[in-house]
Amino acid sequence: MAKNIEKDEISGTPTTGHEWDGIKELNTPLPKWWLYTFYGTVIWAIGYTIAYPAWPLLSSATPGLLGYSSRQQVAEQIEAGKAAQKENLDKIASMSVDDILKDPNLLAFAQAGGAAAFKINCVQCHGSGAAGSAGYPNLNDDDWLWGGTPDAIYVTLKNGIRYTANAETRDSQMPAFGADGILTPEQVTDVATYVVSLSGGEADQAKVQAGQQIFAENCASCHGDNAKGNRDFGSPNLTDQIALYGASLDQVKAQVTRPRHGVMPGWSHRLDDATIKQLAVYVHSLGGGEAAAPATQ
Amino acid sequence: MVQIINTLDPAHEVDTHDAEAVNKAENRSLYASRAAIHPKSVHGTFRRLKWILLVVLLGIYYIAPWLRWDRPGDAPDQAILIDLANRRFYFFFIEIWPQEFYYVAGLLIMAGVGLFLVTSLFGRAWCGYACPQTVWTDLYIWVESKIEGDRNARIRLDAAPWSAGKLLKRGSTMLVWLLIAIATGGFWVFYFADAPTLLRELVTGQAASVAYFTIAILTATTFTFAGFMREQVCTYMCPWPRIQGAMLDEESLIVTYNAWRGEPRMAGRKKAEAQGLKVGDCVDCNACVAVCPMGIDIRDGNQLECINCALCIDACDAVMEKIGKPKGLINYTTSSLYAANVAGKNEHWNWRHLLRPRTAIYFTMWAGVGIAMLVTLLNRTQLDVNVVPDRNPLYVTLSDGAIRNGYTVKILNKRQEERTFRLTVENLPGASMEMVGEQGQKGTSFDIRVAPDKLKAVKIYVTTSDPGVIVSDRVNFDFRVEELNPNGQAETAAYDAIFHAPAKKE
Predict the structure, then answer these.
(1) Are the CB atoms for B305 and B235 separated by under 8 Å?
(2) CATH assignment of B383-500?
(3) Predicted model pTM
(4) What ipTM score was computed for the predicted complex, to two decimals?
(5) Contact A241 B397 (CB under 8 A)
């Protein structure tokens, strides 16, 4: 501290002793409240770095007296969330999908949980609204390749379709009638014309007649004599208004010539049983779910 | 009561106060610490009005949460309750749901426009009489004057060195302040939970931590704002003094020193009169300055700090009475009247000054919002229906070619009793409905039970294969909700919905 503090004559404020070209700097004090607030924040900051993780070390940081970590906090929150769900999840794991659908509380819980799991695992193929796209089935409608009962959906989800990693997977294969020379191109056209006519499409009657004969010999074993499909083989109903790979003549011909087959993973390898059941409830409640078959015991 | 009396001139008829307006523009510096203001207590019309308002306003604040109002069922029996946990606001016979928050918005608009109206009529009447800052500061100053004495005693105590006596006086003042502050914060939380239950929990230490936290914060703000910051809150923190310039006009009633009557002010009035000098009515006794809680001298004209509390009017009127002059040297008047009187016209205020285009517009706005709210409140239904259509996918083609749309129908039962509603789909050809949870049932209507005071959301699928509908882009139809009430009085509601279909058949 300088001994002789010069005072500015006009304002009466002490100067700092700094002078530039005759201009002197006034030592105007900071407002007290500001200064004390500032000191307070300094003290707070020191306390904070002691109580919480702060100072960087070589490979980590000081842990802080309170032992707080944001990661641990998230883990605790997830734990708490899981604990809150545990009762319902345990119930779901021990019940059949059909019974879950009959319990209004569990139904609401499973629909919400299933919707969340669907958003993570299923939307990549089936779309965020579960409406699918060409080659990926729409789950909202009432047309099911492998069955739309709660249990059938559950089994499909669990074991997958043509999913080689699971021995119990749903599996079937349609021969490549055109590509392997089982049918001649004309025969493929005839049978495709017949299939188009089944769902009400316009078709050449002569070709339909010929196609019907070819169908009976080659296709009926899987698709059925009436072409309504067979869920044991996942063979689609050819008479309805929904066609996975398109309903035009060209699209049907392409499918007969060199069939494409969808693959879905079996989720038992990745998800726990309760989640798969919630997914089954969610998919079943999208609008096309079928009532469970009467008990066969 | 001790008074320091300036006895410079024994000829004075009145006590002259050694008071200086600490917030006088030329005295004020932003770098200086605040000089404490010790308002002298005063008696008179406006002081009495302010005491009455203080008792009424504090009474409302402290008593309101304890009023009971019997409601059926599980609903709380507290007349005024903001139930955050259950998202309901109860006000006597009114129960408001969160989606009816526009009532609160309407009340806030009314409060805002009402403030404009009152300010353009009577200046800062809100600030001077009803603002919590003013009310609690008044209460704190009253406590202070009861324990430490009036203005001069407090000035002396302030200047005195610390002693046991000073510590006792200041300590007991602050203790009473603190108790008032705790009561302020403590009663605030009663508006948010059942008051008797919460009081029991608070006392036994079982209340939610947020309750204690709220009380602590409000205790701290009350204690510092009313005890120490006082006029600084109004001058520096509150935006209203800054806005008042736009709110006031030359016809607003504001506290005014009538300089045309008071000047030249003179302490030795009789002596000067004897000498034949021109003498104003103001005897320069500084009584108006001594009583001012804002630390200003009203004789400097209308100022940013002035809260129009009219205590200087009471102080001056008492002096005018003593010296045998007419009251109203300081009074409520308008700047246009002031200017007219300065110009030598003898004009007085009458009620016609209240009727001006500005006040008419404010009043119309205020009343318009009020009437609109009242009408909606009286026509308020106890049943509300909302329909959220599925947007992803917009529609689903079924195997037989029919088109299906999904809707979430939300039915709000605002009554405190369980009610059953029949949901029907209308004006959609060939429509049938399915409800999730009622697997396999199809029809055109479903009966839905909704618990008391609850919302029920049901997922509805509407399907039609009507050739006219499934080839059109969108078709309007109605969801109709009808109360099935055995007592006869049934509410109904309809909701316009849209049915989406592929524009053309592929």
Answers:
(1) yes
(2) 2.60.40.10
(3) 0.71
(4) 0.77
(5) yes
